[in-house]
Design goal:
By secondary structure, this protein is mostly helical. The protein is built from nine helices and no strands. About 80% of the residues lie in helices and about 0% in strands.
Length: about 210
């Protein structure tokens, strides 16, 4: 029963993270169009391999935080400051990078290793898992242990692989829409992080 519960949580949370337009799924779409679906699955396999460990790290960090609840307010204040800095940086990147960058060609034979490298550059993955697992622990839906974290990570790996595979399969239909959304992603992330930071600031001021 525990396996299905934590597997389900991992699958759903990873799916939510993977469905958001980013440089990872945009790369999957472009790679699938250039090289067909089979090589794209190797690229996705590289993504999913790294996400397995990122989910594990996020679960471990969340469990440590929830066991030391006296530090939560301090961490919230630091996190709010980081969110404001991230918001400013996203807006800076959006308004300063107007020229089109040339895409780097990925060799088919090295697709898996490129997937690993690109997923390692995704700095939002661990904070993403950390946040959602902290919420689950706070709601008493997640009881951390090495085996439960393993189940969760297996679910997250399969969830991310599934969503990225869907991007590869329907690449031709969504290329232009995804490219447009991705070009606005820094602006969207700037707005989202700014809103969350303001919400956290208001919450902390009333504590």
């Amino acid at each position: 029963m525990a396996f299905y519960t934590y597997f389900f949580f991992g699958f759903i949370i990873a799916s939510l993270g993977s469905i958001t337009p980013s440089f990872l799924n945009l790369t999957v779409v472009k790679f699938s169009l250039r090289n067909r679906k089979k090589p794209a699955f190797y690229l996705i396999g590289g993504y999913a391999t790294v996400l397995f460990f990122q989910a594990n790290i996020g679960a471990y960090l969340a469990s440590i935080l929830m066991e030391n609840s006296e530090y939560i307010t301090l961490i919230q204040k630091i996190g709010t400051g980081i969110l404001f800095l991230l918001s400013i940086n996203f807006f800076r990147v959006h308004f300063s990078s107007k020229e089109q960058k040339k895409d780097k060609e990925i060799p088919k034979s090295k697709a898996f290793f490129y997937g690993i490298m690109m997923s390692l550059l995704n700095m939002m993955a661990i904070p993403f898992y950390f946040t959602f697992i902290s919420i689950l622990i706070g709601m008493e839906y997640f009881n951390y242990s090495y085996i439960n974290a393993l189940y969760f990570s297996i679910g997250s790996t399969i969830g991310s692989f599934t969503l990225y595979s869907i991007y590869a399969i329907v690449a031709k239909r969504i290329e232009h829409k995804l490219t447009y959304i991705a070009s606005k992603m820094d602006f969207i992330l700037g707005c989202l992080t700014g809103i969350v930071a303001i919400g956290n600031l208001i919450h902390l001021s009333y504590k």
